[in-house]
């Protein structure tokens, strides 16, 4: 995963523009085809911690293991002034619990 500043700046320019025109929620999913999804998740989290406008947003990061045993990392980002903020966070947390719960046999 490239760690150069231009990649980071480009990603956060896209995020800033998305939220400039939308008061919605963004779902970020780490690509897992090469097994480097954990590293991507850590890098994005590190970059987000340095994001100048981070106090304008809520960032909820998690992972879920699929039936093949692959850990899939994701995050949601939403503006703190999103009128549906509480519903968004509750739904995301509920979905995480749902997918983590193992069916009983």
Strand and helix map with partners:
Layout: H1 5-21, E1 25-29, H2 37-50, E2 57-65, E3 71-79, H3 85-100
Antiparallel strand pairs: 1-3, 2-3
Radius of gyration: 15 Å
Structural class: alpha+beta
* Ends distance: 40 Å
Low-confidence stretches: none
H-E string: HEHEEH
Estimated helix fraction:
40-55%
The number of distinct structural domains comes to 1
- Rounded average pLDDT: 89
In DSSP terms (H or I, runs of 4 or more residues), the helix count works out at 3
Q: How would a crystallographer describe the biggest sheet?
A: 3 strands, antiparallel
Strand content: 15-25%
- The number of strands is 3
Broad shape: flat
Tag the structure with descriptive keywords.
105 residues; alpha+beta; 3-stranded antiparallel beta sheet; 22% strand
Word description of this protein:
InterPro entries: DUF6169. The chain has 105 residues and is of the alpha+beta class. It has one domain (5-100). It is 45% helix and 22% strand. It contains three helices and three strands. A three-stranded antiparallel β-sheet has the order 1-3-2, with helices on both faces. The model has no long low-confidence stretch (mean pLDDT 89).
